[in-house]
Structure formats: structure tokens, C-alpha cells
Amino acid sequence: MHAPNQFQQPLHAASLGKRALQGAAIALVLIAVFLLNAGAPDPRWPKFWMIRPLLVVPAAGAVGGIFYYFMDYLRYQGGWKKAVAILASLLVYLVGLWVGTVLGLVGTMWD
């Protein structure tokens, strides 16, 4: 019996598109829940003011998912590198989500 070749195992458990979609879906759910609980909009805001946050925030979430995908290399090395990769992925996702929320809501709810 021979040892498994590291080149025979796939590096990524999921495709880049799947990770981007997962990040965008989480962000979309979060911003949708936030907007639904926001109450009545200010009459001075544009008529379709919700469209921008519903596009910008999931785009930021998709970028976070893409970053998670690219951190697979470190995660598969195990040990402290796995912990750093998970922490970095979480930090980049949360900061990106925050920045996306600010950019999506500026001029309306974020004054």
C-alpha cells in the first residue's frame, strides 16, 4: 500500500463561485432583516433607496467569501496556520460587511 499523494486531493472543498455565493447569501439575509426591521423611511430619501444596500452589502459578502476560498491553502496546512486562516477570514468578512453596510446605507439610514 502506498501513501496518498497530496496532489491527488483537491485543495478546495468548494468552488470559488460557491464560496462567493455563500458569502453574498449570508450578507443578503443580514441586510434584508435589518432593512425590514428599520421602520418607515424618511420621505426625503429616494423612492427606491433600499436597492443600493441590497446590492452593495451582498457584493461585499461575496468578496469575503472569495477571501475565504483563497485561505483554503493555509487552512489545509493545519495547526496554527489553520487558526490564523479562520481568524483572518472571519475578520475580513466582518470588516467587509461593515464597510459594505456603510456604503450601502450612506445618505439614507447612515448619516
Describe, in plain words, how this protein is organized in 3D.
With 111 residues, the protein is mainly α. The chain has a domain at 50-111. Helix content is 65%, strand content 0%. The chain contains 4 helices and no strands. It has helices at residues 16-36, 51-70, 72-75, 79-105. Helix 1 (16-36) packs antiparallel against helix 2 (51-70). The chain is elongated. The termini are far apart. The mean pLDDT is 87.
Helix content: 55-70%
Structural class category: mainly alpha
User: Strand count, sense and closure of the main sheet?
Assistant: none
Mean pLDDT: 87
Strand percentage: under 5%
Instruction: Round the Cα radius of gyration to an integer and report it.
Output: 18 Å
Cα distance, first to last residue? Answer: 66 Å
Q: What string gives the helices and strands in order? A: HHHH
> How many H/I helices?
4
Oligomer, anyone? single chain
Global outline: elongated
The counted number of beta strands is 0
- Give the low-confidence spans: none
Main attributes of the structure:
single chain; 65% helix; mainly alpha; elongated; 111 residues
In short:
It comes from Hymenobacter crusticola. By secondary structure, the chain is mainly alpha-helical. It is 65% helix and 0% strand.
What topology does this entry show?
Blueprint: H1 16-36, H2 51-70, H3 72-75, H4 79-105
Helix pairs in contact: 1-2, 2-4
